[in-house]
Amino acid sequence: MNVSFILILLLFGTFATYLAGDKFAKTVALFFSLASVAGSIFILNQHNAGIDESFMINWISNPNIYIALKVDGLSLAMLLLTTVLTSLILFSSFGNNYNNSKSFYALVLFMSFAMVGTFLSADAFLYYIFWELALIPIYFIALIWGNGDADERKRAIVKFFIYTLAGSLFMLVAFIYLFQKAGSLLIGDLYAIRLTENEQFWIFAAFFLAYAIKIPIFPFHTWQANTYQMSPSVGTMLLSGIMLKMGLYSVIRWQLPIAPLAAKTYMDIFILLSVIGVVYGSIVALKQRNLKKLLAYSSLAHVGLIAAGAYSLSFDGLRGAVLQMIAHGFVVVGLFFAAEIIERRFQTQEISEMGGIRIQDNKFASMFMIVMLASVALPSTFNFIGEFTLLYSLYNVNIWFAVIAGTTIILGAVYMLKMFQHVMLGEQTDKVFKGITIQESVVFVIIIAVLLFFGLYPKPINDLITPALQDIVTKINKL
Amino acid sequence: MNTLIAISGLGILSLLAEIFNGRKAIVPITIIGLLAILGYNISPYNHLGTFYNNMMFVDKFSVAFTSLFIVVTIFLIALSHEFYKEQATKISDYVAIKVFLLAGAVAMVSFGNLSMFFLGIEVLSISLYVLAASNRLNLRSNEAGMKYFLMGSFASGIILFGICLLYGATGSFDLMNMYQITHSVNYPQWYYIGIIFLVIGMLFKIATVPFHFWAPDVYEGSPALTTATMSTLAKIVAMAALYKISILLIPTQTYSFQMIIVCVAIASMIVGNIMALRQNNVKRMFAFSGISHAGFMLMVLLILNNSAGVLLYYATAYAVAGIAFFAVVLYVTKGKDNETIDLFNGFGKTHPLLAAVLTASLLSMAGIPILSGFFAKFFLLNQVLLSGWTVLVIVAIISSIISVGYYFKIILAMYTKDSEKDLPNNIPFIYQVVAILALVINIGLGLYPSIVYNLLG
Amino acid sequence: MEKNLALVLLLAPLCGFLFNVFLGKKAGKGIVGIVGTLSILVSFVASMYFFSLIQSTGKPFQVDLFKWITLEKFNVNFSFLLDQLSVLWLMFVTGIGTLIHMYSISYMHDDENMHKFFAYLNLFVFFMITLVMGGNLLILFIGWEGVGLCSYLLIGFWYKNQDYNDAAKKAFIMNRVGDLGLLIGLFILGYLFNTLDYATLKTAILSNSDILSNPLVGIAALCLFIGATGKSAQIPLYTWLPDAMAGPTPVSALIHAATMVTAGIFMVTRMHFVFDLAPYVQDVIAVIGAATAILAASIGLVQNDIKKVLAYSTVSQLGLMFLALGFGAYEVAVFHVITHAFFKACLFLGSGSVIHGLHGEQDMRNMGGLRKAMPITFWTMMISTLAISGIFPLSGFWSKDEILMTAFHGNIVLWVVGSIASIMTAFYMFRLMYLTFFGEFRGTEEQKHHLHESPSLITIPLIILAILAAIGGLISLPGNSWLNHYLAPLLSKGEHAAHHLGTTEYVLMAVATVGALLGIGLAYSKYIKNGEVPPQDSEIKGIAKTLYNKYYVDEAYETLFVNPIYRLSHFFRNYFEVFFSEVVFAFGKIANAIAIQGKSIQNGNIGLYLFAFVLGVSSILIYLFLV
Amino acid sequence: MSLLTIFYILSAITIATAFLTIISKNPIHSAIYLVISFFSIAGHYLLFNAQFLALVHIIVYAGAIMVLFLFTIMLMNLNKEDEPHKKLATKLAAAVSFGLVCFVMLAVFIKAMPIIDTYKQTGQDFQSIKVLGKVLLNEYMVPFEFASVLLLVAMIGAVLLSKKEKSIQ
Amino acid sequence: MQNILQQIGIENYIYLSVILFCIGIFGVLYRRNAIIMFMSIEIMLNAVNLLFVAFSTFHQDAQGQVFVFFSMAVAAAEVAVGLAILVSIFRNLSSIDIDNLKNLKG
Predict the structure, then answer these.
(1) What residues form the membrane-spanning segments (chain C) (predicted)?
(2) Interface of A with B (CB under 8 A)
């Protein structure tokens, strides 16, 4: 068994879910997604035992394209993140009833399939295919099962789709160009080619466009808030929890090692943009009236920091980025799930229409608060480790980057606490908040457990990703 | 060579079937016949080489494209039976015309002599004029036929003029002779003028800017199945023929010639895609989309390696997507006065399967991976970039982005709007079969692109 | 064995927390209180053990658990350090913690969320222990933020009231401002020395003489100090502390008087080797300390809320401690921390007892004459008040005196400022006492009817703390200081270790005592002799009004920082976001506009089509053959 | 009268009548002019000694095609000058493009024209009926047959476009 | 027999043919009467035919003339189909003015 098995499993699961019919779709989907978790863990064990589970066959002989799936610490970490989060997200949606749920869950699994593929691909062409494939299901999920005014939603979702697609097409051009230089699109061959500075600049710029939109980095973020708001929660979680990480992962895996010279030359600009995103996202989040939009802007701030760390090109920056990617994945899923729980009961996303929930359901309030605190990077949560490492790496570039990006610590607390205060605290309103179900709390418990465990003992993940990142750092510094 | 004869014979056979009251059997017989011809065409019995004093010149290129044309025609004829249900008395005519059209198409890619080429293009064009105007009680169809006819014969005149100049320069219509002359002896400059006229005529046939104006009007006015024929079969035939001409008859591509191609390609991609944005009629939208695809295919002329493979793949991908698209459109627009996008409202809920097929084919044309349209664009842009036309690639990318806008208009209509009227849910079996088959081919081509791509390598 | 005990010391409060969170509601209020208190008591006992251990061996004891954060150049471990300083701190944290837990059993008995209260308190103690015990700056940072969180939770304990929530939020956010400074300081130290462990850091700094010339060290020290100003409520980040009085009184006693707010002093003392390298930062600390002392004391003069007075008093006292730190007199600051913990905890608990007795009344204008109804409360508070005012021989006298002496030797201006602050302290503390316990009762009849002494669970801690407040000074008597001796191995700088008791010192003591008596006298003449009662809010005029409104600092912050940021947020949301969004849409709109224009060209006129055709042919021919 | 003179006269007639065909308001007149033009072209053919072609040309064009035109004109009763007044812009555009295209093409050819002093003269017969027949039915047999397909398509098409729909029974 | 082009010159035929061709183009552009437009197209085709014959003589080669036959066949076929379309338009519209055919646009 090698890693392609997980992809096959998920693809098969997609069809099985669709065929299972509306009634059993979610169960089947969850089953397959759990199976993929099991598979990933198996692969993890194999990897730790020193067995390489990579997979490679020739797909198209001319042009020379392979189906190459690479298992190293980095991709494995992302694989685990994707499969675990997908399971969580699927499980979290059990409280909802979607019409035509067989299509819905099939799309979710398909998206998981595509994202796993993106993380595993070691051939740029394959990678690009998965990258684009991931866009299709989320488009439909957001479009069909989304909420809000239909016309506005359409506008937002189409913008999201075209915008992200536009960015990635330029990446495709860059890959084509690289293909002509290297004669193959295998990642190893791409790493090996030596490009002139000018070439690197354009390649880097093309990649940047794709990733900056996906991540998103200021000022390419305008699709984000509306899309998050309009999508159904499952879609929002998939988008913010995993899909954004595709962009960040790609920066580390593809952009930096392929064009290290450009990355170094223009490092300050990219870090600056990312850091501006951090501050800007935080400030805009202060005055949001819509809960999901607020969370979206907070996400903008957080991923800005991750991107800044990645662009710092240091080992610490990359490591921090990966750690924070995982941490942010869990946290943001938790936060959006909290928003979803409230929405299930109050049928609103407007913060002004909430309040007084803690009185009615203390358990939920506590869990929400823990996740929220993790999101503001309270020490002993996983996010702190990521944020600390990232800020430290930024400090090593320039103290002012660290200071400016560090304001997220303050501003994050401001908007999060403000939100929490108005959403959860205060006198009981006339709205009845039904206590959260066991199923809902299970999701939270898992998230909190992950966040706290790795917050105190991040060694397993660290050991997993370190060799792979070392490899990449060597590639970046090859010149 | 025998393929052409067989196809012509099949056309006559379908005419005869009407006489012998075998109306119901026409479509099946024709399809079986075409399948047999297809089998023969790709079998080793179909010898490569030149035939009848170089009138026919059969090589891998022509065999591959002939097969593609036959496949597309099979689909189109399969759709005919249902489409012409109301005018059953005329079905043999329609089928025969389509088969003859195929014969013309085959002549256009396997000609060894410009006379065959000219006759081929005329058979093709005249068939299309007839088909465009075939709904003779409908003024829109009349108008389409008239416009197509006027402009088409105008273009034919130009093509003829070009051929004449080629003849004047070389004294021969034979490709081999001309090839030898242009590669060895001095010859008058008329030759180039002739080539340009010929190319312009073909640019008209594939509908590139600024010779594209007919396409939207004609596509819109023609009966839907004719639109399907024009946009899928006719376009790729003309493109293949143009490719063959430019490979065999142009001794060296001068920079200025390449510039012309570049400009036309860019203009087509941009104009086609931008104009399609505001279209409300799916056929018209498809026409503009076709214009942009023509611009894409035109870039093949600038490619140095394996350009035939790229063209074949692109043409196949485009045709298959078009067939699937039209199979659905035929069903949706059946019995309607027009073909506005509103007709698709709520289609995703009422007909999930067909909606999925339509979505997939639109995605394919937009160039979304795993569907063949993506690979087509990838192969094409890869080669274009290799040939050094970076600007062209950038424009192609930008126009691809624009194209997503209108392809998704249909998808949006299908999935986000509610249908006002109930469509009859008795989807004709044959439409479903064609749509799904086309989609399967589409995906298959995406999974195993080398099958087609390396066929001519 | 020691390692396990250290873990017990650390984890006992955590266990208490977990128990109270998960089982507290079911277990009932009695069990909750007992478990909460016992878990702290266990820690206290363990601390005692370590205290005796270190006392005897003099060697610090380090526990390394596992690798926590991995960085390229160095790792940060989960390690704990038990040395003189941390054990000392642990002692009074857990000790006073135990007393306050005990007190809370009675005080919070009527609250429906008592189990949560105890859970939070336990959690606080856990984080405080983490802060103190941490073997490196990052572990300290866990505790540092953790106590901030608990403070947030406890200030906003009555979360139905949004004003309290605002106060809690404010506390958390202001602390975070400081935390950012601390983090940056950490980064600089990590960057310079590739470690965050105290021990390694110290050796690295002391062994590296080049480091003196590196300006980064000074910046690091400044950043650390910014962190301290947040936690220890110094200018400019002090405004949260008075607001923090929104929380239940035991919380104010434990967190906002005795323990958490001294974390800044702890940290500065811990990192003294860094501060010693940056004299100008020390000057800044001293000035800020003195300024805070006088500013807070002056505000405290006119406050009417009994807890607010104490809160400003705390800020003022903390300012004095920083004054000492600024002169490098760490052990003096520590001494004052300890004595202050005793008498301030006692005062807060006493005020809590008063408030308890008056069913929530906090305004001193509605009190008076409680001396008879609540004798134990009165006497314990009286002792503490005398202590804080610096009356011989109570603990406050010794510690404050040492600070002022240090200041006198360092900078005469700061000494004057500190002395004035002390006089003010004496004045407002006695103002508090007089208004609360003397004169006639000014509350409602119903309150008067219910006046009673608090139950023993409340009074016992009061008594213990009062005793400690009285005799606490013994640990560091001038000339023969046990404390200085105890801390000597850690601070390792001889100059402050022994004060020579000369004439100057005696004169200074006398001046301080006279000052304190002056303050007391003023208060006496104003509130007892003249029987004045502070005017109602609307009638406050002149300087008093400025003071009463805390120099309008909150308003200034609001105008300078909060509002601009919100306006910016508004601006970004309404303009920037729209702009960027529209830029993206603009591409689509341009394309659409072109398409609409294009549609009018495609007008159905075949003549036009042919015309375009011919033009196309002509231009191609011209380009190819005529140009 | 030299051949050149004849050529010029014939050319003048050809061009003039072609022009008149286009600008005549009455379709019948146009048709008549066109016939004259065709005849003059046949004259050119005769000048080349291509008798057979000239004959065929007259039969096909003047005989068949023009008769078809005339029939249609009669059928539609178009022998009136009922064409509405065209817009100036249309006229101008037509004139401009005519001038442009004429100028361009002539310029192109003048530029491209090689100087030919002696023309090829093999002396062999290449345009008698016999030779043409041989070429047509030997070398060009396939196109010849294929042309029949073309005509068949045109025939079916014409029928299809004019046939009245019968009921399915 | 002498080559006739020796006296007249191939260029003259080319010019004549080009002018004729352009007149055809002009006619298509200038007129709105469909029948006249057809006629213009016939003029264009005839211009080419003439050139074919001229080139045929130029090369002393029969193929050019043979091609004229095909060209005639095409012309005939086109006219037949074109007129059929025209007739059906006329039936619907009672007019053959091309300017009336503007329903398809945009």
Answers:
(1) 6-23, 30-51, 87-105, 117-135, 141-159, 180-199, 211-230, 251-272, 284-302, 309-327, 333-355, 376-392, 412-434, 455-477, 506-524, 606-626
(2) 60-63, 100, 103, 125, 128-130, 132-133, 135-136, 140, 143-144, 150, 153-154, 158, 161-162, 165-166, 169-170, 172-173, 176-177, 179-180
